[in-house]
Amino acid sequence: MKSSSITVQRIYEGTGPQGRYLALVDRMWPRGLRRADLGLDEWARDIAPTPELCKWFSHVDERWPEFRARYLAELAAPEQQARMAALLDAAGERSLTLLYGARNTEHNQAIVLRDALLDYARRHRKHAA
Fold this sequence. Notes:
- The protein is α/β, with parallel strands linked by helices and 129 residues long.
- The chain has five helices and four strands.
- It has helices at residues 35-38, 51-57, 64-75, 78-91, 109-128; strands at 6-10, 21-24, 42-43, 96-100.
- The chain has a four-stranded parallel sheet.
- Helix 3 packs across helix 5.
- The chain is globular.
- InterPro entries: YeaO-like.
């Protein structure tokens, strides 16, 4: 996968252009949407922040910096690193769209995950070269 082609999209606003690898990155299924209507490639719920972290954050903007740091710490765990590698591998050569349900388009877990995936891809590419 081309590491620069990871985007985030609010699932209630559609799934973006055709031909992309679509991964829902929420632990909870988005209210009011049917799986059959979305055309997802993957529901990557295990890579989402822990329920405890989500509950603490509650999309309070003032908690964003701390949420980001805590979620990045969760993503540094070996099992999450393996999940990130698997997600990137599953996307293959297609661009990856991370779908989320939160109303806040600037402060949500998909943004943190995108940044972590881009960093992972950069580090992985360096070591493979």
